[in-house]
Design a protein that fits this description.
Elements (H helix, E strand, L loop, with lengths): L6 E6 L5 H9 L16 E10 L1 H4 L11 E3 L2 E10 L26 E7 L18 H21 L2 H6 L6 H8 L7 H10 L12 H15 L2 E6 L5 H12 L5 E3 L2 H12 L3 E2 L8 E2 L7 H18 L4 H12 L2 E7 L17 E4 L4 H8 L1 H5 L1 E6 L4 E3 L9 E7 H5 L1
Parallel strand pairs: 1-4, 1-5, 5-6, 6-7, 10-14
Antiparallel strand pairs: 2-4, 3-4, 8-9, 10-11, 12-13, 12-14
The structure holds guanosine-5'-triphosphate and magnesium ion.
GO molecular function: ATP hydrolysis activity; GTP binding
Protein name: OBG-type G domain-containing protein
Organism: Pyrolobus fumarii (strain DSM 11204 / 1A)
Length: 408
Amino acid sequence: MPPPQRLIGVVGKTNVGKSTFFAAATLAQVEIANHPFTTIEPNVGVGYVRVRCAHVELGLPRCDPASGYCLEGWRFIPVKMMDVAGLIPGAHEGRGLGNKFLDDLRQADALILVVDAAGATDPEGRPAQPGSYDPVEEVRWMEKELDEWFYRIISRDWDKFARSLYDKNPVDALAQRLSGLSVRKHHIEEALKRAGLEEKHPMRWSLDDLREFARVVRRVSKPILVAANKADLDPAEDNIKRMRKELKDYIIVPTSAAAELALKRAAKAGLIRYIPGDPKFEIVDEKRLTPQQLKALEYIEEKVLKRWGSTGVQDAINRAVFDLMNMIIVYPVEDANKYTDSRGRILPDAYLVPRGTTARQLAYMVHTDLGKTFLYAIDAKTKRRIGEDYILENNAVVKIVAAAAKKA
Ligand SMILES: Nc1nc2c(ncn2[C@@H]2O[C@H](COP(=O)(O)OP(=O)(O)OP(=O)(O)O)[C@@H](O)[C@H]2O)c(=O)[nH]1
Ligand SMILES: [Mg+2]
């Protein structure tokens, strides 16, 4: 079984550009409009992380991705994404669309919190003069709404649950209770430690303890990255400087989702050459562009690429996967000399796996039988044998040798 697909949730206040970000990442056709609550039902799609492909390091002329794609040595590896309805302050008390729709994000491994860094929408998401509202406040409000979401789920029938624990291991019971939120045992252990509740039995937790636990468990199981969106609008410049100063605990990535969407669509239409995440694009043939399109591209060049180095969308996805989820990339192959699968495809698979994954765990991801009958693995770069407990490095190219494989 290939590794479980990771899911990035796109969340935030209403009308800040979540669906634009999602569309830019996935090229899915979704509704985008400059008014609150355009999105009601969640959108699900596939985005990509961008990494230097192992075929470049190995001196191969190309690769043959079974999923995703490779462009000029950049490998784009799929990652699931979900765009949901927007929040407003007080959502947990039922304001706006409430926050129950966040339940769609229970399976998320990380969240990209899109905020309006230009301050061009009021707290209810209504369009306003850019610069009129404070994105620092927006980050704090939105995170509070996310915490309230977790708290609501965790605190449901808490007393009854806590009483039922008197003779049980609280870690296992909590993990089971929160498994629907994709909270794993190691998240619980980490959260108990950080909240200082390791030695205090849940039966004795105060309301404050419970709140603190909910807050911390949300942070460890659904970490957030802030996409400071609408970075193309002038007031965003000062705002982002201030966000970086006042929100030191957050990863803040300036983004212009609208710019990324425009560039990707133009590239798809063959009007420009653009590799997602690049600091530049090239016009294929100026004569094919309308004056309007040309002006839009000039705007993107001036206000986004020159100012920020890229549209930031790719960077946000990459950092969510590598910095928040702590993933690495591993390429399983059948032939450790040619770096191919049994059909001769070069580096067909690039797996996103958690840092710390062992050779044997990888074998299980390739095929359960390979995991069960694992003998050893070969690091295809060095041709060295590695044992089952060997912890794989980022960009490892690995052949699994198993008893089952011999029989086949
Ligand atoms: N200037 C600028 N506008 C943007 C950017 N990204 C999105 N927008 C605009 O912001 C408005 C809202 O975009 P959506 O993507 O629909 O926002 P949303 O957060 O999904 O909104 P809801 O689904 O209604 O909560 C649209 O008019 C977009 O064109 C950006 O990077 N720069
Ligand atoms: Mg939307």
